[in-house]
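Case study 2.
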Amino acid sequence: RTELQWDLWKRVLKNECPMPVEHCIGNHDVWGWDKKKSKTTGREDQWGKQSALDNFGLDRRYRSFDKAGWHFIVLDSIHPHDELTYIGKLDDEQFDWLAGDLKKTDRGTPTVIVSHIPILTVALVEFSDVFARQPERRQGATHVDAKRIVDLFKQHPNVKLCLSGHLHLTERIDYSGVTYICSGAVSGNWWRGDHHHTDEGYTVIDLYNDGTFDNQYVAYGWTPRE
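Prediction:
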């Protein structure tokens, strides 16, 4: 079933989307981490993130590139956890790479950071009742290592924008010179309509040569399934 869905997604993307696409690994792209539910051993060829890397055509789970005068850094914020399956954070190897990448990037080049799980968020207020009962679940909803990432960004004023998804909600936070935008989801409330007053949709961001940007949320407008 999973292979069928991957094939369908890749075929539609190829036939219907002429624009270049850059992928960021999310929690639903990881196969088999919950061994009890997945009935995997961990020894399968595409176990973990390998399946996503293969289907996305990626050599590594995090990377950076330059385009149209901006520097883009795509992170892998899905970190394995024995009890919770995953939490939001960067492993030490990736954090060191991020610090090195920012250090060698020209300080005059505006930079965008992309992570599936939000680095900073206030939208979790919508789930406060859930976290009151299960406080450990908060670790999978936002980065548990946000402070050291924010401290790193303070050393690099060319970091202008952080983009994320994961929560299926829209928000914008301006903090310490960086704007954090959570971009909603086309699936809305997992194909059951809007999610906490966030319509099914996607975010469009215009990046300008002077390091500024505009963003808007576009409602997709489909009929929820019964």
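The first strand starts at residue 63 and ends at 67.
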